[in-house]
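writing this on my phone so excuse typos. first protein, seq and then structure
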Amino acid sequence: MKEEKFASLEELYKRLKPALSTKMREMHREKMISVTERDIWQYLCSHLWRGKHTLTLGEMVNDILNTDSFTIYRGIRED
């Protein structure tokens, strides 16, 4: 499988936006309505993906969709 390269973090963010949007809607249904896609992105970048350099796009989507919403919410509130 071909490894995907991204010119910038913003390009990667745009590519992951559908998964981030899905997670945000899930969190809104769970009454965490102040959470944005950018909040989720920043939390994952600074907590879950920090120091990792070999993540695939699929692994990142999996992390977005499967990281516990309350863990993300607590992490955002603490930052």
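second protein below, same order as before
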Amino acid sequence: MKLFHTILYIGLGLMLLLFGFNKFIWFLQDFDFSGYPEAEHLFKTLRYSSHDEGPKGYLMHFVGGTEILVGLLLVLRKWVPFALVVLVPISLNLVAFHLFVNLPNIGPALLVALVNGYLIYKNWNAYKPLFRQKT
């Protein structure tokens, strides 16, 4: 089971590194948004800070940088509970984007969210002090 968890940590970390660096260099092909104009419009707005291609926006760089940081922490197995909590809003937004505007491409988003949720569950003892009640 320990090997399985190590594969999950490293696999999720490498996936985040790949997609994080892609937000700076754009070496991967974008998802096919054919038939989903809302998804294409929103994606281009996030990527370029407008719906037209032009100067790059800041938001994708911020998300990409966060993905790179979390990916490195997971691969190196440093501050794992912190990294998993930082990833929660990103993974929820990935699922929401695909759920509401681009359902056919939801697979990678669901994978990230499910693995993130499972790893949080496996590290739950690290989060218990956050929920302790003072008497």
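The chain has a mean pLDDT of 89. thats all i got for now
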